[in-house]
Specification:
By secondary structure, the chain is of the alpha+beta class. The chain folds into two domains: 210 residues, Heat Shock Protein 90 (2-Layer Sandwich); 134 residues, 2-Layer Sandwich (Ribosomal Protein S5, domain 2). Helix content is 27%, strand content 24%. The strands form three sheets. Strands 5-4-3-6-2-1-7-8 form an eight-stranded mixed sheet, covered by helices on one side. β11 and β12 form a beta hairpin. The protein starts with 9 loop residues before the first helix and ends in an 11-residue tail after the last helix. It binds adenosine-5'-diphosphate and magnesium ion (MG). Magnesium ion binds next to α2. This is ATP-binding mismatch repair protein.
Amino acid sequence: MAATIKPIEAKSVHQIQAGQVIVDLCSVVKELVENALDADATTIEVRFKNYGLDSIEVQDNGTGISEANHESLALKHYTSKLSTYDDLSELQTFGFRGEALSSLCALSSFTVNTAQAHEAPKGKRLQFETSGKLKSTSFIATQKGTTAIVENLFAKLPVRQKELSKNIKREYGKVLGLLHAYACISTEVKFTVKNTIPKARSAVVFSTKGNATTRDNIANVYGAKMLSQLIELDMKLDFQSTLTQLSRSDVDCTKVSVVGHISKPVFGEGRQTPDRQMFFVNGRPCGLPQIAKAINEVYKSYNVSQSPFIFADLKMDTNAYDVNVSPDKRTIFLHNATALTDKLKAALTERFDNIDQTVPQSEV
Ligand code: ADP
Ligand code: MG
């Protein structure tokens, strides 16, 4: 007998979709840190309890959330950043879909403490229902800015919660990799990351200084010794577009520059591991597997036994890529990836070939 086709109940739809936005611990931290950056924070503190299993808190000193927005804060597709699809290509913010906070309500116990400049040190503590509706509001003492608190992540999806606790150390390692990327690229923001494990004191995992260069940030995150192993990348790549029909005629998608730092292709001390590789598009941390592969391949042709440290920011017109590819926004689609990759390999080879003529970067 054929089953009747009928709609899934709204609550279940919300949970199913939430599970695609917030897929793991990394997505939680990514969404909350990006919200803090979007709110113009200059200090961001990320606090884990028990590696994130018990709670994750992200505190910023940004704009805070106005009282008028408290009710709609965690409703699905409510955002202050985008209102029509056409706005997407001009977007300067990390967030745009208004899905993160609503998803966190569906998957955890979610609380926000917030105060705008004129309200601090008196702020509001907001608690939300699974649906994203505001459940309760109370007064609380807090500095200007916002603290988002996620407790008992995935408690509402028991299978995923079990997976998370089984793999928590590995997940936490991935999160640190992500936080390294945000901390290193954010020259205007002081990042502090702490973890408290049961029966121990809270420990600072790393912190940056704020108002610093990317080199300073790298030294604070990876240790000053790292700097002597690095050379600067500043490569301008101009190439023929293979997909001009995708580009608007008034913008140029065929000019990309790559700025950042990479290990010298000589045998340095110790072994660099591939997890010290960070990629960005216009300062937005993202996975760029094709670009990563290309850079690693060139490096391997000079130094077969080590993997490089890579910090590579690809600067390009906002029309040359699409961030709206996957629900978690981790995938970025580059319109001219193949042509770009070929050009990049040639430029990096030239950079490595000319390494002796360049002035070494001074030690800190
Ligand atoms: P999005 O970032 O896509 O807009 P979110 O669900 O992440 O969606 O956030 C919803 C809205 O809540 C944001 O548009 C923003 O107005 C507000 N918001 C979230 N986090 C913060 C924060 N840390 N500081 C100030 N406003 C915030
Ligand atoms: Mg967001």
